């Protein structure tokens, strides 16, 4: 059973998500938080697997709550899934840097929300290619400063792994990476796993951040050795 904590200051939204999630056989809503402070407390007491976290909440907001959860050894198994309206939320990138496993828009289809919870609970990052590309465009527009290879040791990567990381940063799925590089999907997945280990990244979400912050990916970048689509 996947244990889910809802964190949103709007009662109507919490009620809607609770009603939706509790209609499944494998998801249980174990608590509701009105702000980030309560979300961190309840994440500890309820031992939630996934926190559906709104960014904009009074007092301690979703960003700070995500940062606290990701930084707590006692909450190492808790995954944060950000709830966003995306077009208006300016902090999705910061949420990923803070430790969020991904994000979904509040008006997502019910089946997609349920699947998102299952994906994140399973340990994967929820970054669909289309949403990731929009996120990258947002990062580019803000001119994020780059980081050195010392902070993120991409020098440990092979040439092939750099190719794969570049494509992950572009929002490519494993299947798309496999197709572009003439690999099997399993091999592409293995490369991503090895890159995650070498860079001590939390998940695919952080790989996107690393690719961008090290300058490996910029707006319009394509992976070395690939051809334009």
Number of domains: 2
| Unreliable residue runs | none
CATH topology annotation of the largest domain = Rossmann fold
The first-level CATH class of the largest domain is given as Alpha Beta
How much helical structure, as a percent, in the residues?
40-55%
The CATH superfamily of the largest domain appears as Response regulator
| Number of separate strands | 5
The largest β sheet comes out as:
5 strands, parallel
> Major sheet: order of its strands?
2-1-3-4-5
Rg from Cα: 18 Å
**Structural class based on helices, strands and sheet pairing:** alpha/beta
Shape label: globular
Average pLDDT = 84
Give the count of helical stretches: 10
Which CATH architecture of the largest domain is right?
Answer: 3-Layer(aba) Sandwich
Strand content: 5-15%
Distance between the termini: 42 Å
Brief account:
The chain is α/β, with parallel strands linked by helices and 229 residues long. The chain has helices spanning 11-21, 36-46, 62-70, 92-98, 110-121, 129-142, 159-169, 174-181, 185-198, 204-213, and strands at residues 2-7, 27-33, 50-54, 79-84, 102-105.
What does this structure look like?
This protein is of the alpha/beta class. The chain folds into two domains: 125 residues, Response regulator (Rossmann fold), CATH 3.40.50; 69 residues, Arc Repressor Mutant, subunit A. The chain is built from ten helices and five strands; from the N terminus they run E-H-E-H-E-H-E-H-E-H-H-H-H-H-H. The protein has a five-stranded parallel sheet with strand order 2-1-3-4-5, sandwiched between helices. Helix 3 links the parallel strand 3 and strand 4. Helix 2 packs parallel to helix 3, helix 7 packs across helix 9 and helix 8 packs across helix 9. The chain is globular. The termini are far apart.
